[in-house]
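<derive_structure_tokens>
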Amino acid sequence: MISIQNLSVEFSAKSLFDNISYVINPKDRIALVGKNGAGKSTMLKIIAGLQKPTAGNVAVPQGVTVGYLPQQMETSDSTTLLEEVRKAFSHIDGMKQQLERMTEELGSRTDYESESYQNLIERMTALTDRIAMEDSDNREAEMEKTLTGLGFLRTDFMRPTAEFSGGWRMRIELAKLLLTHPDVLLLDEPTNHLDIESIQWLEQFLTTKAKAVVLVSHDRAFIDNVTNRTIEISLGKIYDYAVRYTRFVELRKERVEQQMRAYLNQQKQIQDTEDFIERFRYKATKSVQVQSRIKQLAKIERIEVDEVDTSRLNLRFPPAPRSGDYPIIADNVGKRYGDLQVFDGATFTIKRGEKVAFVGKNGEGKSTLVKCIMGEIPFTGSLKIGHNVRIGYFAQNQASMLDGELTVFDTIDRVAVGDIRTRIRDILGAFMFGGEASDKKVKVLSGGEKMRLAMIRLLLEPVNLLILDEPTNHLDMSTKDILKQAIKDFNGTVIVVSHDREFLDGLVEKVYDFGGGKVRECLGGIYEFLEKKKIDSLAELERNRPSVAAAARESAPAVEAKPVQPRLSYAEQKEREKLIRKAKKKVADCEAEINRLEAEVAALEEKMSSGEYDEQVYADHAAAQKHLDNAMSLWELASMELESYSD
């Protein structure tokens, strides 16, 4: 559909892309990956026609529409939310006006046999077909569904766009883009301003309704769920894999290993050739062979090894000073802004060493409760901070607190202690401040770079309670892995406000759900929480059905004793059957996993009873038992879901 041909881009004599070519096909859902600075956003801009390459071209067939969502953009402040989103359909109104003009022209012409008359009819037919395909009688319903899916409330629809923050304005632009249904969607970090529920809605939209998609994202779970093809940009080249991201990571590892073997073999060949030249350079009897080896050396095409993944860097933070047993005790905490009750009755206790997540839709009070904990804003109820608790707080305004006159290196050097000081440049490199970037002054850094620097600075300070508000928004996948492992190894207490499911998975053991003015404690990891939320909503839907049937029975004549059963349409019946099949498979998968884990636990217990074991066996047994408990919980939830479909 779209053909990228021999594309090259140079910036200040540095090659970003070097003669690359590929094709975007209909129904392709492509993850564009690579290190920060590899050129992912530049590639999207070139495809969108907003930037010209140094050489090569992008061939877009006539009639193919391209929609582009950048990371940052300006939006209009002169309309309400609904009026702004209606602009998504302005091109259809323009096509209708064009069709009216063509109809008037056709009525005034009498040259029925001419070629131009026939061309006019053909253009009118094509335009009519396109209007019929893109126009919809249920525009308002489609707009409402898209806006609510992206987290807006119906009460927001008539609010001026000027009242929304930058993140919500990006959601407005995303809604407009999705409603235009372009043939190719180009999305640059679309999840940065979305909460978990909105991300899941967007995943569903992209997989079921979108045509071709090319996206850049550091949310591993999101791109895994959406894409079916991965294109990596590395050292000016591209590597195209017809697989989703997780499989690509495995294949990339194999590729880099092959490159490294070829590189080492070539280096040996080069060294042997250079040694021969040096040894016989001044011997007349060997001059022909020496000249031959020099020419041979010049012709060798040097093998480059792709950038090495720095996720293996073992970053450890200073041990946390011991705090009291309960760093945070909240009792009936509430916060109100005027007539708006953000949340009320929040009662919970966070124990020393726990790692918990605050999740929920934007605006439900996650960051507000963090500010209450920090003592930045007044609140109702009681909120006690435990004995000897030292808080390290990462918020969106942390970057503004850095000293602009210091260099990146000095900023970290001033807070690093112990053996960390000997590895500052390694740590900076892992967080994308390698080489000359470590000598830049803070004042010249971009907003995202300052946020990353503030994150490093915070995590090197000796604290025992970390509170991280959206820490992953400006980190690539490798750096997120480093940060995640460091937090897992941290022996203090951690509160993470995040919408990144992959980051939270395996990191937190408890989730606090913010919604409807309440804060609910949910035991288990992030995916168990999401699974339970889905079941809860289905169960609530089922609980509502008997009351509808009862009302139908009450309104029926006395002779009608049978309950009224709603008739399902063919499409609804097929969807129901699909859900039942999916639920049965989930139950079967859970049962298979339980059988596997029970066998693993039994084998470990047999080993323990034999007396031939070490301390590692105890650890393996505890881990296997925990996985078995989790599998049992998931089986119960899956069984409940399957039962909810029974008549």
